[in-house]
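Schema walk-through. Below, the input block comes first and the output block second. Nothing else is stored per chain. Lengths vary across the set, and this one has 247 residues.
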Amino acid sequence: MIKFSKLILVSFLILLTSCRNDNSDTAFNNSQTEPALRLKKISYSTKGYNAEFTSEIKYDINDRIIQITSNSTTTDIVYDVQNRIVQIDGYYTDNPSVHTNSKKYEYIADEIIISGLYSGVYKQEMTLFLNNSGLPIKTEQNVGDSIVETFFEYDNNMNIIHRYTNDFYENNYYSYDDKKNPYYAFPLVLQNYLNGFNLIGKNNVKWIKYFDSTVNQFKTLNVLLEYDPNGYLTRLENVQSVIHFFY
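--- output ---
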């Protein structure tokens, strides 16, 4: 059975990628034919809990996201001379020596190797295999002593429409609206860091259909979406969370 936590559309961890060898972390976003959204702030709450987490996004003069600050944590984003994200460092704001979630990224041809920080040492976690558009078509993730492979299929807007593992432990289908995804302006490595693979693409997820092995059938999780007069997503609600977006 698919773990329910893996079906949540957005998971705040604060709170892919390469196109051959050139400017790999911006290749996907450069394919846009219209201006990207400039997301300034996100607020997130979990149903049943009287708490709200807010993240504010800081840009540099080149309009690159360089820092995200939330209630108690800070995340710094570091780029190389090719404008690719090579490190994302999350830590407690009042105690920067304590890391919350730190990653390093190595770009090799059509692959990205992601390493996470554990006890002061970066260890390889996952390898992304990319297509000619710089989108992940397969991942290999180290889970204990085994490797889990995940595969991705896309629509014409580069939205993931089918995501499944080699053992079909995960087997999800996605449906989308026709509005801009607030995270679409984010480099894909940063999208992956914040949201896993749930929000990669141009549009917003309306529902997820997943296979529940306990009853041997597919089930559907619906998402409520609200927009401003310009068609920008301002509120997202799923079975567990409520998220507001500010531009």
